[in-house]
Amino acid sequence: MRHPGRLRLGHQQPLRRRGAPAGGAGGAVFRLRPSSDLARLAALAILLALSACAGARGRPAPLPPPLRLAPALLPAPLAADQRLSFRHAGGEDVLDARLEADAQRLQLALHRFGQVLLVLRWDGQALEQSRAPQAPLTLSPERVLDDVQLVYWPAEAIRAAMPTGWTLEEGRDGRRLRHGRSTLVEIVHLDDKRVRLRRPGYELIIETRELP
After folding, report:
1. How far apart are CA 54 and CA 51, in angstroms?
2. Residues 21 and 54 in one domain
3. Which residue ranges does the record annotate as region Disordered (predicted)?
4. Is the domain of 132 the same as that of 82?
5. Is 96 found in the same domain as 45?
6. Is the distance from CB of 184 to CB of 199 less than 8 angstroms?
7. How many CB atoms sit inside 10 A of residue 32's CB?
8. What pLDDT score does 34 carry?
9. Domain assignment of residue 206, yes or no
10. What is the tally of structural domains in the chain?
11. pTM above 0.85?
12. How far apart are CA 66 and CA 104, in angstroms?
């Protein structure tokens, strides 16, 4: 078929100017292959989408920010004998604890079979620890302090210490620390004496055994 502008269109033939051989000097060749081009673009789009999803899944969850709240923010002194059950990928560590906190300082002593393994002291400025060589390596003093404060300190004080993007939700059954739409720490009151705290990598159950 001849085009008035001196272009020739043939079945499955490239679109070219008349009078110049394909690929010759001065010739302009325009090739249209819609099926193959669209297929390549679709494949590229799928690969990009899969790469983005894989990257999102591969990003680790952000760590909850450290609290380091002042003991003076407690509405009332705390004194309790407790049993702490730490459950993690390596197993479970069950320790007895003595928790004491007032407006001046917090002290938490962890022991097992009558042997003191770790003592934490926090005065609002410095975290001091006395650690026995046989204390479990998975026992992090900083994380234990954060967990205690997430459970017992007022929600308003925790919210005031949170950086942008973090929120604390509080309900009748417990608390949830969230980053964006993700829940990073969940605290549930199982009953009058037991509290369960879950965060990425481990779970802590606090059982109050005796209140003086």
Report:
1. 5
2. yes
3. 1-23
4. yes
5. no
6. yes
7. 8
8. 53
9. yes
10. 2
11. no
12. 20
pLDDT tens digits, 100-131: 999 999 999 999 998 999 999 999 999 999 99
pLDDT the model gives residue 63: 81
How distant, in Å, are the alpha carbons of 20, 22, 67, 139, 182 from that of 62?
A: 64, 60, 15, 20, 10
Same domain? For 16 and 102 the reply is: no
One domain for residues 181 and 78: yes
**Which amino acid is residue 208, in one-letter code?**
T
CB 178 within 8 A of CB 169: yes
Residue 52 lies in a domain: yes
Chain-centroid distance, C-alpha 85: 22
Residue 38's domain comprises: 7-58
Confidence of residue 54 (pLDDT cuts 50, 70, 90): very low
Please indicate, yes or no, whether residues 51 and 85 belong to a single structural domain of this protein: no
Give the pLDDT confidence score for residue 45 in this predicted structure.
57
Residues 6+ apart with CB under 8 A from 203: 86, 87, 88, 196, 197
